[in-house]
């Protein structure tokens, strides 16, 4: 029972130096700057609306209101997730 815990602990210590000393890589910035406006622009709104229509149809077919709530949450997550991802990865710790 203790072996997996210690193995994970050792891996964290081994790779923490690499994580702490790494610099910000700019390899994926062009991809991110292309995807983020799409998800919050016309493509994201179109996908969100289509999720809403699919959710309404699923709710009517299954006579279940939970499908509407689930699809509404997915549509909101699609629109808000680029903001959350950018804030999480650009966060700094106070000194």
The share of residues in extended strands comes to under 5%
Report the structural category: mainly alpha
The helicity comes to: over 70%
What would you report as the Rg, rounded to the nearest angstrom? 20 Å
Look at the structure and give the mean pLDDT: 76
CA distance, first residue to last residue = 37 Å
* Cα shape: flat
State the domain count. Answer: 1
Low-confidence stretches: none
Secondary-structure element string: HHHH
Topology, number of strands? 0
Major sheet details: none
Total helical elements: 4
Could you give a short description of this structure?
The chain is mainly α. The chain contains four helices and no strands.
Provide structural commentary.
This protein has 95 residues and is an all-alpha fold. The chain has one domain. 81% of the residues lie in helices and 0% in strands. It has four helices and no strands. It has helices at 2-21, 29-40, 42-62, 66-89. The mean pLDDT is 76.
Secondary-structure blueprint:
Layout: H1 2-21, H2 29-40, H3 42-62, H4 66-89
Helix pairs in contact: 3-4
Salient structural properties:
0% strand, flat, 4 helices, 95 residues, mainly alpha
């Amino acid at each position: 029972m203790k072996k997996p815990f210690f193995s994970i602990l050792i891996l964290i210590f081994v790779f923490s130096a690499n994580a702490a000393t790494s610099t910000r890589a700019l390899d994926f910035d062009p991809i991110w700057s292309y995807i983020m406006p799409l998800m919050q622009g016309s493509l994201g709104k179109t996908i969100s609306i289509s999720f809403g229509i699919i959710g309404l149809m699923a709710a009517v077919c299954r006579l279940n209101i939970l499908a509407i709530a689930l699809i509404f949450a997915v549509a909101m997550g699609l629109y808000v997730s680029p903001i959350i991802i950018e804030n999480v990865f650009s966060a700094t710790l106070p000194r």
